[in-house]
Design brief:
little secondary structure, 2 helices, about 15% helix, globular, disordered N terminus
Length: about 100
């Protein structure tokens, strides 16, 4: 995973994850042919902080995560998805 300031792009390899979830795509809508992706819900279980997680999509849309979120600020080092996903559950916006 890469976060603002570290100069890298987010890819499954850089995050150490296996991207295994396939989204369902809508039909194109409007003159710009906008399509939206819907991902299956994978639960929202809290697991021990810093335990190993499988993140099936980047960014994750649901799934097991840590019981606390990171401090709201910009980071110059990667923040584990388990913390970021918990923050997103509570409305945090993650820009990577």
């Amino acid at each position: 995973m890469k976060v603002p300031g570290d100069g890298g792009a987010v890819t499954p390899d850089s995050a150490g994850t296996d991207t295994t979830v396939t989204p369902t795509w809508s039909e194109p809508v409007g003159p710009c042919a906008v399509r939206t992706a819907t991902f299956p819900l994978l639960g929202a279980a809290h697991v021990a902080a810093c335990s190993t997680l499988t993140v099936p999509s980047l960014p994750p849309t649901s799934g097991s995560h840590y019981p606390s979120w990171p401090v709201f600020r910009a980071y110059d080092k990667p923040v584990p998805w388990g913390f970021l996903l918990h923050g997103m559950e509570h409305g945090v916006v993650v820009i990577s």
